[in-house]
């Protein structure tokens, strides 16, 4: 079932439709189109594109006059770094927080975390980024304004230093999501009969929590993490723009500004593959962990 | 109140009161309950849904979350007051001295753990066995409850078993540490009839080996087959306690009479289905006096003012009714 | 659990009961109050706003919050307060319309999937799967970039991308209702499909729909702000757009250009979130 739509999507049905439209909306670009071979009949274009994309060739960027793929590859590692760090932070902090929240439901800690998480969910990421920018870069010059490294170059530490603000901004939203999710999932599980039965066997609270409750509560969280990749991608575009983090997000922003369609399509394609890939991975992990599913 | 103190009582419940704080007021789920469960006896606790039976069971095991609930009274088991124990000590009691089996076998087993492990848990904890020995013990327990090819099935997950089988696993878990008291909360109500019959037969067989059983149900038929003594509970109070034959042949409390009348029997002809008029009272705003008086066909004025307590009417037959003599006469001759 | 005595018949209508439960939660009330406030602002914008939001005043650029300009001005001297007040108009319009679109489509899809089952269901579920996987923002951006940044496009694309989750919820609810006896009764009576769906199933699944729609509005607002921020704004007065201005000129230290519009986005989304929570509590019942 999963493989099913993975294949369906790999055939760029979406992008293909997009490919057709520039011809309509950009009449003034006939000249450029000729140069890039867009004046050929659309179906052969599509074919070319399809074959090309499977080989990793997305055509040439309008703006940069350079192959789209190479530009993407250039920026990719940075985005991976940013998203990876955020994802890591989300998992490492979000899950324990959710657990604590649930086990101490309605305590001050819990209430505080719920409030913060609700804010994190409703907050536009760019706002948080901007505020952080103002506070920590302008007024208290603790962090650099952007970029991956200082101009004078630097090692890992330098990169990490630059990573803090954008990483935090990006992670905040998904952390909030995971926190609330785990909290509610765990609270639900704790109400279940088998938790009562476990206590009825005389097991102590810690065992009941870790061995019985968490195993069940964390399962749906796996899928949730997979889904939050989608959110992280959207957020990455915003965050990278704010902090001039030279990754795919910033590339997207620039491409929009220049109406650089091949670039946009290429990026979108990569994003889609990434998301599908992640979801496949999480689905497999889930199937592996849940004994009720046989594959 | 006077109960004849029987020295072979295993569990003595004295004046148990359980109430909950709800937004609408204080809800009294269990009110002044006194009950003796003797050694090697199967005691049935019957009543409608909401009468407080499950809450009673849970409070014996101290599985109620105490902030919303308030539990007062004494639960004497082998000389210890269970309500006075610290949590650590109580955890040693649960599963080893008292074990409970629950209503819904599907939800009382953890879906992501193998059944054999779930049984072995209890054994590991209470008998200090290692993993391997505990697993062997759990296989033995599974055999006792009649599961075929137990070694193989121990590696199954709950969803791979039928409802009847799952319930057997639950029973095996409960019995694995040889408890003195087994509390069974409506263990057959979620099963199909065939499994029900099988399970009851199994319980009858096992009960002899176990010790004492507190069997909670609303099904009078099951209780007739299985139990030695019966306690009838209504709206948080015990209304009547008697030996099973005595209760069925000579019910004293109007509620019990109503209950028995509403049970259809295969051997009597019934023209109209009988039932008890009215509904269970609101446990927050309770009726004054005898809780049953709004629905009682014999109710007199005194029933509205005084609260009846459990008194011994005949030897071993207790009833909580102010006008029981008037209804039945001082001897056993009374109209049915 | 205990049953209420029959003597206490409740005389309030379902609506009053729902309102009473809604009122219990202060946050939900706050949410409702804020949105009402916003609606008033939006409608009365010309009367309330001190300046024309597009009015350029090059002599008063980057003015911090001060008596003349309560929330400061931006790089063209446009008054932030007025821009916020007028901004409420688009936010509410786009948010609500997009959510409406999402609700209608999702509702129909879910009902159809749940009611007809089997192949139709499978097909719809596959489609929703695909949508759920697609990273939303990039697709939206491409769409708007290609088809032109006008209000209609924005509404359409947001609505189109948001309906799958609602459809799933509707489908689940529909399925659970389908199992109930009265549906079978309708079928044996030979009722037409539309009748069954609209008169019987729909009223019973309304509550989660309302709840989710409120969330949908919040979501739509966030997406719209992001789109505006990235330069695809359909209109020149938009909270998201203001944030992009703030970004461009942040070195000037004009924090108010970022703070206030963003704050309003946050409060608006929070309000809808609280409203949806409140609706959840209020419509629970039964």
Structure notes:
The complex is a heterotrimer of chains A (295), B (336) and C (286). Chain A has 295 residues and is an all-alpha fold. Helix content of chain A is 77%, strand content 0%. Chain A is built from 13 helices and no strands. In chain A, helix 1 packs antiparallel against helix 13 and helix 8 crosses helix 9. The N terminus of chain A is likely disordered. Chain B starts with 8 loop residues before the first strand and ends in an 8-residue tail after the last helix. Chain B has a single domain, classed as Rossmann fold (3-Layer(aba) Sandwich), CATH 3.40.50.300. Chain B is globular, with a radius of gyration of 21 Å. Chain B has an eight-stranded mixed sheet, sandwiched between helices. In chain B, strands 2-1-4-5 form a four-stranded antiparallel sheet, covered by helices on one side. With 336 residues, chain B is α/β, with parallel strands linked by helices. Chain C is mainly α and 286 residues long. Chain C has one domain: MetI-like (MetI-like fold), CATH 1.10.3720.10. Chain C is elongated, with a radius of gyration of 23 Å. In chain C, 46% of the residues are buried. The N terminus of chain C is likely disordered. Chains in contact: A-B, A-C, B-C. Chains A and C meet through helix 1, helix 7, helix 8, helix 11 and helix 12 of A and helix 5, helix 6, helix 9, helix 10 and helix 11 of C.
How would you summarize what this structure contains?
Chain B is α/β, with parallel strands linked by helices. Chain B has helices at residues 53-60, 87-93, 105-108, 115-127, 131-144, 150-153, 163-175, 193-210, 220-226, 244-249, 254-262, 302-305, 324-328; strands at 9-22, 25-38, 42-46, 69-77, 80-81, 98-101, 181-185, 212-217, 229-234, 237-243, 311-314, 317-319.
Task: Please name the defining characteristics of this protein.
heterotrimer; A: about 300 residues; globular; B: about 325 residues; Rossmann fold; 8-stranded mixed beta sheet; disordered N terminus
Q: Per the principal axes of the C-alpha atoms, what is the gross shape of chain A?
A: globular
Straight-line N-to-C gap of chain C: 14 Å
Tell me the number of helical segments of chain C per DSSP (H or I, 4 or more residues long). 11
Rg over CA atoms of chain A: 23 Å
Largest interface: A-C, 48 and 43 residues
Main pleated-sheet profile of chain A: none
Task: Please state roughly what percent of the residues of chain C sit in beta strands, choosing from under 5%, 5-15%, 15-25%, 25-35%, 35-45% or over 45%.
Answer: under 5%
Shape of chain C: elongated
Task: Supply the CATH architecture of chain C.
Answer: Orthogonal Bundle
The count of β-strands of chain C is 0
Strand residues, percent of chain A: under 5%
Portion of residues in helices of chain C?
over 70%
Helix content of chain A: over 70%
pLDDT < 50 stretches of chain C: 1-9
Radius of gyration of chain C: 23 Å
